[in-house]
Amino acid sequence: MAQKKKKPQSAGSDRQAKIQAAASSGAGSGANKIVIAAVAAVVAIVAVVGFVVIKQVQSDNAVKGDGQAVPAGATMGGAYPAYQDVTAKAGAPTVEAFEDFQCPGCQQFERAIGSTLVDLAKSGDIKLQYHMLNFLDQRLGNTSSLQASNGAYCAADAGPGKFEEYHTIVYANAPEQEGTGWTAAQLKDYAQQAGLTGDALKTWESCTELGKYTNYNKAVDANAFGKEGIKGTPTFKINGTIIDNKTFATPDQVKAAVAAATK
After folding, report:
1. 96, 145, 171, 227 — which has fewest CB within 10 A?
2. Helix, strand or coil, per DSSP, at residue 131
3. Where are the alpha helices (DSSP H) in the chain?
4. Which backbone phi and psi does 80 adopt, to 5 degrees?
């Protein structure tokens, strides 16, 4: 049987065949491998960065407690109980202080009777509670009340008595001009003056930078002007009853009021 003769290839088709042969034999595979390796490296970097970001978010949320963090011994929007390591005496009255760190009147009362309240609380003669407000931030156009309050509660995380120490130091460094407030560096310095160092100071910095107690602070402020029925600061209550500041302005007056309320 006769067979068909193969047609001679043209020069163009021969060149195309060589190109296809070179491609199939792996020519250029080195460049492809480099591209693939580069893509793989980018993917790996993105994965690592994504993991780090996720872990950081998880860490931040752990500090903030998903926005529901409250200082030890307190409830959302409720008072902060001072000197929780002290056992109050039987019949000791509860004294509540409603304050704003930027309030000039609060600063005056702190200088006049602050140490008296501290001494009575340390001796167990009263159960001292603080409601730290921040309504003056809006009036003064800053966030110093909120930041100072956060700093005080973050200091409390370091151990017993640290809230109270920080509280005293902030008032002792009240700015001369209302509305000046405090810088972040100043508030950190107050934490150091309160004895926070090393890991405790780092934890305090993280706590304040993330605003761990921001929602708690805002809830305290809202409750004070809501169900607590206060009209301004400073305001004091003994066993739930608002007392006239004029009768609670000196150490002797404070001691007399406490004695009258002791059961």
Report:
1. 227
2. strand
3. 11-24, 29-64, 104-122, 136-140, 144-156, 162-172, 184-193, 198-209, 214-224, 251-261
4. -95, 120
* Superfamily (CATH) of domain 80-261: Glutaredoxin (3.40.30.10)
Residue with tokens 């509670």: 129
Q: Are 86 and 220 in contact (CB under 8 A)?
A: no
How far does the chain reach from its first CA to its final CA, in angstroms? Answer: 129
- Residue 193 to residue 183: CA distance in whole angstroms: 15
Burial of 95 (0-12, 13-18, 19+ CB in 10 A): buried
pTM across the whole model: 0.77
Residues 6+ apart with CB under 8 A from 20: none
Consecutive 10-residue averages of pLDDT for the chain (263 residues): 46 54 52 69 61 45 71 97 97 98 97 98 98 97 97 96 97 93 97 97 96 97 96 97 97 98 94
